[in-house]
Specification:
The protein is built from six helices and three strands; from the N terminus they run ααβααββαα. The chain has about 140 residues and is mainly α. The chain has one domain: Arc Repressor Mutant, subunit A (Orthogonal Bundle). Strand 2 and strand 3 form a beta hairpin. The longest helix has 28 residues. The termini are close together. One of its GO terms (molecular function) is DNA binding. One of its GO terms (biological process) is response to stress. Keywords: DNA-binding. InterPro entries: HTH_MarR-typ, MarR/SlyA-like, WH-like_DNA-bd_sf, WH_DNA-bd_sf.
C-alpha cells in the first residue's frame, strides 16, 4: 500500500480513538453526546447564537432528518439548552438557538473536551502519527 494510504489509516485510527474518548467523557460528565456538543458549539459561534436547521446539518455533518431528531432528543432531555423558533417571515424555516443554560453547559463540556484532546495529543501527536506511517513504509 502507498505511504499516503498508510498515513491516512494511522490518522483515521487515531481519530476514532479520540472520538470514542470524547463521546465517553461527555456522556459520563455532562450527559451529552459528541454530536450534541457540536450543536452547542456551532450555535455558540454564531453572532445571534442561532442557526437554521439546514445550516446546522451542514456543520454537524448529519442529514436533515438526523439533525431534526438530534435537536428533538436534546430538547426532550428537558435541560433547556436549546430553543426552536419559527421564522416570522417564512414559517417553513425553523431556527435552533442556544440559551444561556446551553451556553453554560457548553462551557463546562468544553473543559472536558479540551482535557481529552490534550491527553490524546500528548500520547500521540499528529506529527508522530505521520512519521510512524512513513517509517512503516520504508
Amino acid at each position: 500500500m502507498s505511504s499516503a494510504f498508510c498515513r491516512w489509516l494511522e490518522i483515521n485510527n487515531f481519530h476514532l480513538k479520540v472520538e470514542t474518548a470524547l463521546e465517553r467523557s461527555l456522556q459520563t460528565n455532562h450527559n451529552l453526546s459528541l454530536k450534541e456538543f457540536y450543536v452547542l458549539y456551532f450555535l455558540s459561534q454564531e453572532p445571534e447564537r442561532k442557526l437554521k436547521l439546514q445550516d446546522l446539518e451542514e456543520k454537524v455533518g448529519l442529514s436533515q432528518s438526523a439533525v431534526s431528531r438530534l435537536v428533538s432528543k436534546f430538547e426532550a432531555k428537558g435541560c433547556g439548552a436549546l430553543e426552536r423558533n419559527i421564522c416570522d417571515a417564512d414559517r417553513r424555516i425553523v431556527y435552533t438557538s442556544l440559551t444561556e443554560t446551553g451556553a453554560a453547559k457548553l462551557e463546562a463540556a468544553a473543559a472536558t473536551v479540551e482535557k481529552v484532546l490534550a491527553e490524546s495529543f500528548s500520547e500521540m501527536p499528529i506529527q508522530k502519527l505521520i512519521e510512524k506511517a512513513d517509517d512503516q513504509n520504508k
